[in-house]
Amino acid sequence: MAKRYEGGCHCGAVRYSCEQEPEYTFYCHCTDCQKTTGSPVSMELMVPDATFKSTGEVTSYVVTGDSGNAVTRCHCSNCGSGVFLTCASDPGYIFIKVGSLDDASWVEPQMHIFTASKQKWLGINDGLPQFAGMPPVE
Ligand SMILES: [Zn+2]
Ligand SMILES: [Zn+2]
What we know:
By secondary structure, the chain is mostly beta strands. The protein has a single domain (19-117), classed as glutathione-dependent formaldehyde- activating enzyme (gfa), CATH 3.90.1590. Helix content is 5%, strand content 37%. The protein has one helix and ten strands. The two termini are 25 Å apart. The chain binds zinc ion (2 copies). One zinc ion is lined by residues 28, 30, 32-33, 42, 114.
């Protein structure tokens, strides 16, 4: 049975729910994620968007990501929290920021991507695969 999970921004104006298992879970070390989150790394779930529903006003910020594709980053219009994003390279999928989940205890990270721009002082010792850029397509 599909898992149902919910999340939202810090102030609660943006809320979402989804009922599909993530296809991938990853730490992204790209420079855009570093800048837009103010953190050395962003952790995200790549989820089919068929059952994804969100409420509340988001501000969309479109940039060309390190992959060369348009990335639409959606932040709460009130508190500015990054909540989810979409990538032109992956239509039909939504990328949920793990920190926005109400309960992220069930998440199992699978890999690190864009480690070419990883901060040198951030150590990785979890044994997960690391990719300098996008992971190879299966
Ligand atoms: Zn908010
Ligand atoms: Zn990134």
